[in-house]
User: Fold Secreted protein from Massilia pinisoli.
Amino acid sequence: MNTIKRLITCAVATFALLSSFSAHADEETGWRKIVDIGCHHVGGTCFVALDGAAFGASLGCPGAPTNQFRFDDGNTVTGRRTDSTLLAAAMSGKSVSIHLTGCSSQGTPTLAWYHVQP
Assistant:
């Protein structure tokens, strides 16, 4: 009987943990061109605007739907690498596909990962 109680308690705890996560889905932008790119001087938040239709509606961000995503780690090695890669893509006219998840500190969709078209 103790084993059943422990299993039920574990199941209830797991359900509570899983239900505490946001029900919002990640989004993919599909292949698009970068039309604007930059970073804030203070705070390290970088922003990228893409052509085409607005995105981010399923993420539940207050600043969505929009054609802009952000990433808050522009002052880190990873953030600088991301900014440089996306800037190179914009300057060379390459398309990018962006995977978005969650919201930035400024309420817009945030970057999870990206692809640059070869």
